[in-house]
Amino acid sequence: MASNKKLLVLPGDGIGPEVMRQVRRVVDWMDKRRHVSFDLQEGLCGGAAIDAHGTPLTDETMADALQVDAVLFGSVGGPKWDDLPFEQKPERGLLRLRKEMDLFANLRPAMVFPAMADASSLKRELVEGLDIMILRELTGGVYFGEPRGVETLADGTKRAVDTQVYTTPEIERVARVAFELARKRGGKVHSVEKANVMHTGVLWRQTVTKLHEAEGQGIELHHMYADNCAMQLVRYPKQFDVIVTDNLFGDMLSDCAAMLTGSLGMLPSASLGAEDPTTGRRMALYEPVHGSAPDIAGKDIANPLAELLSFAMLLRYSFDMQEDADMVETAITNVLNAGFRTADIYAPGTAKVSTTVMGDTLLREL
Ligand code: NAI
Ligand code: MG
C-alpha cells in the first residue's frame, strides 16, 4: 500500500514553508486518524536550495521528483535572489521540474465556496456552486513552436515571429486527460480552439473528435471557439464542467475563470505528465497558483487554503483517495461557512485569523 503513496514535499521560499506547515499537520492527522501513511520526503527548491547548495534544484532532488508518485510544491522566489542571472534564479528550479517531468497537462479548477460567492467579480447567483476545471496544454503551442524570434529586414524594419504548432499525439494526450477528468466529475468536456481561422484549431478539433469516438464513451463533448468561450465564462460559467484547450488560450481562459472565484489565496493547481505504460502512474506536481508573497512572508498571515486545496487535488488525482479529498474540501467549506478568514479574504462580519489559527480551525473541523 505504502509504495503507491510516495510524496515529495518542496515548500520553497517566502510563504511557501508557512502554508506547507498547515498541510503537514493535515498529513499527520491522516496518519493518526485515517491510518493512511505516506512515504513522505521533504526537499529544497528555489532560493532555499540556492542558499544551501548553490543551485535552485539539485540533481538528487530532481531524481527524487521523478521517482515519487506526486510532488507537492510551495512557491519559490523573492527579493533576496532577484539580482541573480536568469539561469540561476529560484524559478529555474520549478521550470526544470516541469520540463524533466514533462508536465503537459495543467489543471486549474475554479471552484466557488458558498461562503465566498460575494467575493466574485460576478453576481452571486451566477457563481454560487460553480465548479469548473480548465485543462491547459502546457508544453506545446505558440510559446515553444519554431521558427520563433525577431529579425531586422533589409529596409531596417523589424519582424517578429512566433509559431503555433501541435501534433496529433500532443493533442491526444491532453484530450485523454480531459476525458479522464470528466469521468470523475460531471461527464462533460468543452474542447476550445479557433478552428474557424487556425490550422492547429482544425487539427485540434479533428483529433479530439476522433479520440472521443474511440475512448470517450459516456462523455458529452462540445466544441467551442476560444473567443466565444471567454464570453461564455463571464456570461454563464455554470454551463462548463471540463474545458480543454491549448497553451495560449488556456493561459488566458484559466486566469479569467480564476477571478470568478475571487481570491488568489484559494486557487490550487495540478500539472500532470505522461502515464507510465506498465504501472499506469502519472508524473504529477501540485502547487498553489500564488507565488511566495514576500510582502507578507514571516508574518503568519498568509492564506494556507490554496496549498491545502492543492493537497486535496493530489489525494484525488494521484492517490485516488476521493473520500479523503472530499473530507479536506468539506472541512474547508465548513470553516469558511463558520466565518473564519485570513486577511486576504477578510470581510466585515467575519473573524480574521492567522495562518496557524486557520490550520487549528481546519484540524478541529476534520
Ligand atoms: P504573489 O502571488 O506572490 O503575490 C501577489 C499578491 O498576492 C501579494 O500582495 C501577496 O501578498 C498576495 N498573496 C499571494 N498569495 C497569498 C496567500 N496565500 N495569502 C494571502 N495573500 C497572498 O505574486 P508576486 O508578488 O508577483 O511574486 C512574488 C514572488 O513569487 C516573485 O519572486 C515571483 O517570481 C514568485 N512567484 C512564484 C511562483 C511559483 O513559485 N509558482 C508563481 C508566481 C510568483
Ligand atoms: Mg498567466
TrEMBL record:
<keyword id="KW-0520">NAD</keyword>
<keyword id="KW-0100">Branched-chain amino acid biosynthesis</keyword>
<feature type="binding site">
    <location>
        <position position="227"/>
    </location>
    <ligand>
        <name>substrate</name>
    </ligand>
</feature>
<dbReference type="GO" id="GO:0051287">
    <property type="term" value="F:NAD binding"/>
</dbReference>
<feature type="binding site">
    <location>
        <position position="251"/>
    </location>
    <ligand>
        <name>Mg(2+)</name>
    </ligand>
</feature>
<comment type="pathway">
    <text>Amino-acid biosynthesis; L-leucine biosynthesis; L-leucine from 3-methyl-2-oxobutanoate: step 3/4.</text>
</comment>
<feature type="binding site">
    <location>
        <position position="108"/>
    </location>
    <ligand>
        <name>substrate</name>
    </ligand>
</feature>
<comment type="subunit">
    <text>Homodimer.</text>
</comment>
<feature type="binding site">
    <location>
        <position position="98"/>
    </location>
    <ligand>
        <name>substrate</name>
    </ligand>
</feature>
<protein>
    <recommendedName>
        <fullName>3-isopropylmalate dehydrogenase</fullName>
        <ecNumber>1.1.1.85</ecNumber>
    </recommendedName>
</protein>
<dbReference type="InterPro" id="IPR004429">
    <property type="entry name" value="Isopropylmalate_DH"/>
</dbReference>
<keyword id="KW-0432">Leucine biosynthesis</keyword>
<keyword id="KW-0028">Amino-acid biosynthesis</keyword>
<keyword id="KW-0963">Cytoplasm</keyword>
<dbReference type="GO" id="GO:0009098">
    <property type="term" value="P:L-leucine biosynthetic process"/>
</dbReference>
<feature type="site" description="Important for catalysis">
    <location>
        <position position="194"/>
    </location>
</feature>
<dbReference type="Pfam" id="PF00180">
    <property type="entry name" value="Iso_dh"/>
</dbReference>
<feature type="site" description="Important for catalysis">
    <location>
        <position position="143"/>
    </location>
</feature>
<keyword id="KW-0479">Metal-binding</keyword>
<dbReference type="InterPro" id="IPR019818">
    <property type="entry name" value="IsoCit/isopropylmalate_DH_CS"/>
</dbReference>
<feature type="binding site">
    <location>
        <position position="136"/>
    </location>
    <ligand>
        <name>substrate</name>
    </ligand>
</feature>
<dbReference type="InterPro" id="IPR024084">
    <property type="entry name" value="IsoPropMal-DH-like_dom"/>
</dbReference>
<feature type="binding site">
    <location>
        <position position="255"/>
    </location>
    <ligand>
        <name>Mg(2+)</name>
    </ligand>
</feature>
<feature type="binding site">
    <location>
        <begin position="78"/>
        <end position="91"/>
    </location>
    <ligand>
        <name>NAD(+)</name>
    </ligand>
</feature>
<dbReference type="GO" id="GO:0005829">
    <property type="term" value="C:cytosol"/>
</dbReference>
<feature type="binding site">
    <location>
        <position position="227"/>
    </location>
    <ligand>
        <name>Mg(2+)</name>
    </ligand>
</feature>
<dbReference type="GO" id="GO:0000287">
    <property type="term" value="F:magnesium ion binding"/>
</dbReference>
<comment type="function">
    <text>Catalyzes the oxidation of 3-carboxy-2-hydroxy-4-methylpentanoate (3-isopropylmalate) to 3-carboxy-4-methyl-2-oxopentanoate. The product decarboxylates to 4-methyl-2 oxopentanoate.</text>
</comment>
<keyword id="KW-0464">Manganese</keyword>
<feature type="domain" description="Isopropylmalate dehydrogenase-like">
    <location>
        <begin position="6"/>
        <end position="362"/>
    </location>
</feature>
<feature type="binding site">
    <location>
        <begin position="291"/>
        <end position="303"/>
    </location>
    <ligand>
        <name>NAD(+)</name>
    </ligand>
</feature>
<dbReference type="GO" id="GO:0003862">
    <property type="term" value="F:3-isopropylmalate dehydrogenase activity"/>
</dbReference>
<keyword id="KW-0560">Oxidoreductase</keyword>
<comment type="similarity">
    <text>Belongs to the isocitrate and isopropylmalate dehydrogenases family. LeuB type 1 subfamily.</text>
</comment>
<keyword id="KW-0460">Magnesium</keyword>
